[in-house]
Write a structure and sequence with these properties.
Radius of gyration: 25 Å
Number of helices: 13
CATH class of the largest domain: Alpha Beta
Distance between the termini: 68 Å
Structural class: alpha/beta
Shape: elongated
Strand order of the largest sheet: 2-5-8-1-9
Number of domains: 2
Number of strands: 9
Low-confidence stretches: 309-320
CATH architecture of the largest domain: 3-Layer(aba) Sandwich
CATH topology of the largest domain: Rossmann fold
Strand content: 5-15%
Length: 320
């Protein structure tokens, strides 16, 4: 209708202007929120990741979903490397293999040719530019068989064994250079975590990324949420996370609330995400599940209880 009235007008969306979801996802590789905060080098999480990386050569950010693991891994990678051109991202999954990560083959019109994986590519680039830092970010580390994926390199990613030569599957001799940093994320409650811990407990530092009350408060304030509504959300957030010590599946990360600004947005977060998390975490404890669902409903338009001493007295009974 608008185009019919003014046919010469060109309409531009947020992504056309470089400020929308697609642009943010392209530049940050960590968040699709157009207004996601910019992480700087003085951020305490980034500083700790960088410090541990300098000691161990690799850092695993471990925490339940929604705790900003990928967000901080991406931000820290770009800050540590100093350039996006020296950062590579990969995501592990159940079928991810050595051939995807280290060295495999790719088909041509008539046969196959060798293809270097992201680890080998970055290791060679780092070896050729020893004055620069290169960073490999591995998302969902615990979703693959890490011993099979890393192969011969598993021993040599350890900081004390960097620069030692070893032979990969094609007979080529390579080394893991000191200026290659590995940052990884994982959910500590995934299957396969025991194998990851056994493989990396000596090699990499592990940094806990837990649901964070202060970060949630900052998110809700930044989103302009009404203070009273914000207070009730915080009460529920603390309540369910109190169960996480005995029931790890109950952990709710602060990033679940990245779009929360009012009752309508909270209703969507519950209906399409948190409802299923609560059902799964407490499927064998229906009483707690029901109590948490009731507690969530109390977030909405619940009047504050009267202060002590201000209760309204009941009207005296009157006779006929």
């Amino acid at each position: 209708m608008f185009e019919e009235l003014v046919p010469a007008v060109r309409t531009l969306g947020a992504d056309d202007l470089g400020i929308g979801v697609k642009e943010q996802a392209r530049t940050s590789h960590a968040s699709s929120a157009p207004d996601a905060p910019v992480i700087t080098s003085d951020d305490p999480y980034v500083q700790e990741i960088a410090r541990l990386a300098s000691i161990y050569g690799g850092v695993i950010l471990s925490g339940p979903p929604g705790t900003s693991k990928s967000f901080y891994a991406s931000a820290a990678a770009e800050i540590i490397a100093g350039s996006k051109n020296r950062v590579k991202f990969v995501q592990f999954h159940a079928s991810y293999q050595y051939e995807d990560f280290m060295l495999g083959f790719t088909p041509t019109e008539t046969s196959f040719k060798p293809k270097e994986g992201p680890f080998l590519e970055l290791a060679k680039a780092a070896a050729g530019h020893p004055d620069d830092t290169y960073v490999l970010v591995i998302d969902e580390l615990s979703r693959a068989d890490v011993g099979r994926v890393f192969g011969e390199a598993l021993t040599y990613v350890e900081n004390t064994k960097r620069e030692l030569p070893f032979t990969i599957a094609n007979g080529e001799e390579i080394k893991v250079p000191e200026n290659l940093v590995i940052l990884a994320t994982m959910n500590p409650f995934d299957r396969g975590v025991d194998e990851v811990d056994a493989a990396f407990e000596r090699r990499f530092a592990k940094m806990a990324m837990d649901p964070d009350r202060e970060l949630l408060e900052a998110i809700l304030e930044s989103n302009g949420m009404d203070p009273d509504l914000q207070r009730r959300v915080m009460i529920w957030f603390e309540r369910i996370n109190n169960y996480a010590s005995s029931n790890p599946a109950a952990a709710v990360g602060h990033a679940y609330f990245s779009t929360a600004s009012d009752e309508s947005s909270l209703a969507d977060i519950w209906r399409y995400q948190l409802k299923y998390l609560v059902e799964r975490a407490f499927r064998r404890d229906q009483n707690t599940r029901a109590a948490l669902e009731t507690g969530w409903q109390h977030i909405f338009a619940t009047p504050d209880p009267p202060e002590h001493g201000t209760e309204t007295e009941p009207a005296p009974a009157t006779g006929d």
